[in-house]
Amino acid sequence: MHWPEPCSGGGGLMACYRRLAGEEAEPWLLRRVPVCASTEPLLARWLQQSAAQDHSRAVVAVHQRKATGQRGRVWLAPPGGLWVSAALPWGGRPVASAGLFGLSVVAAMAECLEQRGLPVRIKWPNDLLVEGRKLAGVLPRLVHRGSQLRQVRIGFGMNVANPVPPEGIALKQLLGPAHHGVDHWGAELLLAFDRCQRRASDGSWCLAEIEQRLWSDRIQDPDDGSIWTIEGLAPDGALRLRHGSRTCCWRRWP
């Protein structure tokens, strides 16, 4: 595949990022493609072709044809939305915090959206909801070489001005003309990545932030239909549940 050149300072998203970040701007490497099946394999190929991997980098697509989310579900990713796969180096940072990075990004983006007056709720562990409808989703994973954690990779999708299904909602619907554009929200996302990486010495900061914004206080077990009370998050980010005298933790959706 022919790659476009990494965006320079004049690129819309990177120019916006540098303007917002000021002196705290990190040396992000960015590639944008007009259309692809998914940004994740493009990011993986880029990393394989690069000898040095000590900078954060991201692939941004205008349109993804076969994006997937949690449990392999198809994520509609038409033009007008923000569709990103990113890789952040993790050498020397706590491994436990890497496991919380996805939750940290969810919390950081929730805070950012709330500054625009949006009543954000977090559907553990991946989704940002507004008015009960999905606005954005995160899909993190850790990359090891042998026993050493090398990178945190994260996929992120957010409805900005794209058409959405009935269960989704877009920023354009919520904010109208003040919704800004995809480049602005891409810059906000890079800033969120930066903040979460800088706070990696104590990744648990996000737990209380997420607990305050949980989408529900009850959840149904899909296996037997029983209703469990959500008690909060465990130190590793798992969802703590109670049903009568029984307790358990979900580390992923069953």
Short account of what is shown:
The chain is an alpha+beta fold and 254 residues long.
Write structural notes for this entry.
It is built from seven helices and eleven strands. It is of the alpha+beta class. It has two domains: 12-211, BirA Bifunctional Protein, domain 2 (2-Layer Sandwich); 218-250. The strands form two sheets. Strands 1-2-3-7-6-5-4 form a seven-stranded mixed beta sheet, sandwiched between helices. Strands 8-9-10-11 form a four-stranded antiparallel beta sheet. A hairpin with a 6-residue loop joins β8 and β9. α1 (12-21) packs across α6 (182-198).
Topology record:
Elements: H1 12-21, E1 29-33, H2 39-49, E2 57-61, E3 82-89, H3 95-99, H4 101-114, E4 120-123, E5 127-130, E6 133-145, E7 148-158, H5 171-175, H6 182-198, H7 205-211, E8 218-220, E9 227-233, E10 239-243, E11 246-250
Parallel strand pairs: 1-2
Antiparallel strand pairs: 2-3, 3-7, 4-5, 5-6, 6-7, 8-9, 9-10, 10-11
Helix pairs in contact: 1-6, 4-6, 4-7
Q: What is the CATH superfamily label of the largest domain? A: Bira Bifunctional Protein, Domain 2
Kindly report the CATH topology of the largest domain. Answer: BirA Bifunctional Protein, domain 2
Radius of gyration: 18 Å
Largest sheet: 7 strands, mixed
Helix tally equals: 7
Please tell me what the overall shape is. globular
Secondary structure class reads alpha+beta
Question: Kindly, what is the distance between the CA atoms of the first and last residues, rounded to a whole number of angstroms?
Answer: 37 Å
The neighbouring-strand order within the major sheet is 1-2-3-7-6-5-4
Helix-strand pattern: HEHEEHHEEEEHHHEEEE
Give the name of the CATH architecture of the largest domain. 2-Layer Sandwich
Identify the CATH class of the largest domain: Alpha Beta
Question: What is the number of independent domains?
Answer: 2
> Which oligomerization state do the chains in this entry correspond to?
single chain
The average pLDDT is: 90
- As residue ranges, the low-confidence spans are 1-10
- Strand content bin: 25-35%
Give the proportion of residues in helices. 25-40%
- Tally the beta strands: 11
